[in-house]
Structure formats: C-alpha cells, structure tokens
C-alpha cells in the first residue's frame, strides 16, 4: 500500500476537499446553459462580474485562513492603511497579514452581511487580486499597490484552455509575483478543466508564508 503513488494521506485528502468543493460550486454556474446564454448576450438579469469575483475572494479567504490556522497570520478582504494611517490602498480582494496589523472592521459581526477590514501595511505579507474570468491582465494594480505591499498575487476563477502560460508571463512582467487559476474553460468546451496542480502550488506557497513570522 505504501508503494502505491496514487494513495494519499488524510492531510492531503483534506486539502484536496476544499479545492474539489470550490470547483464543483463554480462549475455548476459556469456550465448551466441558461447562465451561459445570459453571459454570452450580456443580457439583463445576469450576475455581475464584481459579484462573481467577490465570491472567489471569499472562498480564498476561507481557504487561506484554514491553511494558516494556529499561526499569527490570517486573511481578510479590505484596504491597507499607510504607515501614518492617513490614506488607504485600492481595494484588496484578499490581504494575508499579521493578526496584530488589524485596525478596524466594517459591519463584521457574528453573522455579518459584510466583513470588510482595514489593515496596517506594516503587517501585510501578501495581497491577492481575484478575477472571475481572466482574459487580460490589469497592469495598473501592481503599480498602485507597490507602495503598500511588496508581494502581489493574481488568482483567477478561470482562463482559456490555451492562455494560462501567456497570462502568467504577462502577469509577472506587470509585477504580480504569482498567478493561479482554479480551472480552464471556454464556451466551446463541454466541461471545465480543473487545475489541481496549480491549486497544490498555491497551497504550498501559502504554507511557506508561515516562515515570514
């Protein structure tokens, strides 16, 4: 049994569960014919890209918090405050930061409608920008964030089946340290293509952040 490379341990299986559940949730919306028709025609009544991106960032916040459980690091959606705490950065979909850097939360209760945080840039470690469908790279975001945090990652819900390498190269040239996507998809595909290898690399990079303390 130990010689079977296909066998994985409990810990690895638990990490895989979150990825599989995320992919399953997003797949059901991406593959629904009614939703696809609305998106293709940009019809009234479709879900806005901002909302789809926010859903992805929420899922990543939960995943990162779990991966960093028991450390002095956590993850939140919010703004970074400058050293003097006078000005804030552009919106950050996911901030990985020291717990001691937390300054204030907006509308965060035990059952929050919104849980938006203000975090001191001094305790920030990584900011992750999230996109629902990555077709192009926002080259301005790393420049706007460069005075607040050194490390900026980009995480897309999906990208085209042949565009991931090209997008990753453009992202790194623009100033993003890392680029990941949850799955590949195009309207011509009969199903999505989960990016398990990319997710495993993402998990390892998050776990490495424990060494930042």
Mean pLDDT rating: 87
Taken from the alpha-carbon principal axes, the silhouette is globular
Number of domains: 1
Number of strands: 8
Task: Give the arrangement of secondary structure elements.
Blueprint: H1 10-30, H2 33-41, H3 49-67, E1 73-81, E2 92-98, E3 102-106, E4 116-120, E5 124-134, H4 140-145, E6 152-159, H5 164-174, E7 178-184, E8 193-194, H6 196-208
Parallel strand pairs: 1-4, 5-6, 6-7
Antiparallel strand pairs: 1-2, 2-5, 3-4, 7-8
Brief descriptors of the model:
213 residues; 6 helices; alpha/beta; eight-stranded mixed beta sheet
Textual characterization of the structure:
There is one protein chain. With 213 residues, the protein is an alpha/beta fold. The chain has one domain (10-212). It contains 6 helices and 8 strands. The chain has helices spanning 10-30, 33-41, 49-67, 140-145, 164-174, 196-208; strands spanning 73-81, 92-98, 102-106, 116-120, 124-134, 152-159, 178-184, 193-194. An 8-stranded mixed beta sheet has the order 3-4-1-2-5-6-7-8, sandwiched between helices. A hairpin with an 8-residue loop joins strand 7 (178-184) and strand 8 (193-194). The longest helix is centred in the N-terminal third of the chain and has 21 residues, at 10-30. It starts with 9 loop residues before the first helix and ends in a 5-residue tail after the last helix. The model has no long low-confidence stretch (mean pLDDT 87).
């Amino acid at each position: 049994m130990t010689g079977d490379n296909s066998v994985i341990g409990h810990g690895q299986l638990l990490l895989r569960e979150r990825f599989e559940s995320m992919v399953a949730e997003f797949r059901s919306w991406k593959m629904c014919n009614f939703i696809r028709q609305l998106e293709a025609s940009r019809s009234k009544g479709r879900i806005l890209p901002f909302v789809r991106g926010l859903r992805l960032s929420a899922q990543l916040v939960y995943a990162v918090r779990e991966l960093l459980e028991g450390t002095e690091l956590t993850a939140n959606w919010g703004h970074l405050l400058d050293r003097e705490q006078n000005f804030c950065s552009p919106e950050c979909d996911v901030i990985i930061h020291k717990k001691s850097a937390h300054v204030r939360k907006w509308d965060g209760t035990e059952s929050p409608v919104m849980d938006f945080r203000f975090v001191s840039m001094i305790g920030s470690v990584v900011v992750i920008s999230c996109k629902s469908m990555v077709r192009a790279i926002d080259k301005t975001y790393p420049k706007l964030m460069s005075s607040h945090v050194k490390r900026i990652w980009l995480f897309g819900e999906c990208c085209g089946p042949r565009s991931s390498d090209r997008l990753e190269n453009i992202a790194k040239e623009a100033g993003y340290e890392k680029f990941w996507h949850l799955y590949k998809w195009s309207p011509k595909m009969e199903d999505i293509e989960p990016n398990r290898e990319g997710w495993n690399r993402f998990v390892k990079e998050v776990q490495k952040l424990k060494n930042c303390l």
